[in-house]
Amino acid sequence: MAKEYAMGNQKKIAFPIAARYNYAFKYFIEAGLGQQYIMQPRMTKKTLDIGSQYSPDTVCTPFKTTLGSMIEALECGADTLLMVFGLCRLGYYGELQEQILRDLGYQFDFINLAEYTTGKARDYLKAVRRMNPKLHVAKATMVGMETLKMVEYIDEVEDLYYKNCGFELTKGAYKKALNQFWTDMEKAASKADIEAGHQRVKSAFHDIPLKKEEPIRVGLIGEYFTVQDDFSNLELEQKLCDMGVEVHRWMNISHRNLHYSGEKNLNVRIRDLCRYEMGPTSTANIWCARDYAERGFDGIIHVKSAGCTPEIDIMPVLQNIGTDYKIPILYLTYDSQTSDTGLMTRLEAFYDMLSMRKKVIR
Questions:
Q1: Hey, is 338 helix, strand or coil?
Q2: pTM tops 0.85, yes or no
């Protein structure tokens, strides 16, 4: 049955669940645009099953999970959906997902940012005005800057968490502080709320005693969505931390989008390995893998969704890095059938190998 959407003054806007960044989307939509943000549930196996049911067989898993998340958002009352742009097939996934949803009978407004990606600020402004035609530009700009700061805080806090939570003396202390931070970000209604939540978690992290002596350090690289989203990678980072691993992940919005040095700059550093641009995150992942190797990391894990062509293409280059620097690399591919048990078996074997290797080298 078609889902009728509200015709009141406020739009009910949703975005597919993407790691923890939906808190920032919520803040901008509500504080900056004066619209209502619909926060659908965190993704589960049900989300993936729903998305898989209506997706073409050949698309990557992020297509299926984001489609499932959109359906859950519509079922929660959303009348407007946002979709990002991208440099890979994501660039036209939004159009295909919109058509699938309309074929299912849903009625909604669909704002595909790929249509506004011209590099000109006025075109992005058109997209924002579709969410609120009576937009107050100055206020939206101010809140936009606060939103970007929240994104930076989210990335900073996650980085600290995964580097240290595996070494806490009080089990669960880091997770408790992190969960409070997520609650603070979801409820934030002002810049002061964002700052207070950030300071609270930083203080809590600082007060947690650690026991960290020559830890095994593992660097994560891979496809943009899967390597960041804990549901999509079956909580890979948390599993490693629970084994007592110090986990590093460069790939996040702050590094890849807000403070990115650019493809040309990174290509200069890896021109002996790669002379051509290979895809949306390929250059960054090759550079990052070499950086981890040069900094003496114990291992690297490469994460991708099944069928992700750019990440498949860089695997021979990563193998060369592994050989040149004598650093083990574990390749993980995720699809809708990937099991938690199978992942744990591979991670445990990888950890045992790194542990034995570290003792020999030491």
A1: coil
A2: yes
Q: What is the pLDDT of residues 263-277, one digit of tens each?
A: 888 888 899 998 877
Cα–Cα nearest to 3, from 129, 104, 127, 148: 104
pLDDT of res. 88: 75
3-state secondary structure 107-151: CCEEEEHHHHCCCCHHHHHHHHHHHCCCCCHHHHHHHHHHHHHHH
Alpha helices per DSSP H over the chain: 22-27, 45-54, 61-75, 90-103, 121-131, 137-164, 173-187, 191-206, 224-228, 236-242, 253, 263-269, 282-294, 309-313, 315-325, 340-361
Contacts 24+ apart (CB under 8 A), 268-271: none
What are the residues whose beta carbons fall under 8 Å from the beta carbon of 167, sequence distance 6 or more?
210, 211, 212, 215, 244, 246
Radius of gyration of the chain (CA): 21
d(CA 147, CA 153): 10
Q: How confident is the model at residue 362, as a pLDDT? A: 67
Number of residues written out for the chain: 362
311, 292, 313, 293: which is closest to 302 by C-alpha? 311
SS3 62: helix
Q: Do the beta carbons of residue 48 and residue 42 sit within 8 Å?
A: no
Reported as a single tens digit per residue, the pLDDT across 145-174 is: 999 999 999 999 999 999 999 999 999 999
Token pair for 332: 């993980």
Average pLDDT over the chain, rounded to an integer: 93
Residue 268: predicted pLDDT: 87
How far is it, in rounded angstroms, from Cα 290 to Cα 239? 24
Backbone CA torsion sign across 97, 99, 105, 106: positive
Adjacent-strand bridge partners of 109? 80
Task: Write the CB contacts of 243 (distance below 8 Å, at least 6 apart in sequence).
Answer: 166, 347, 348, 351
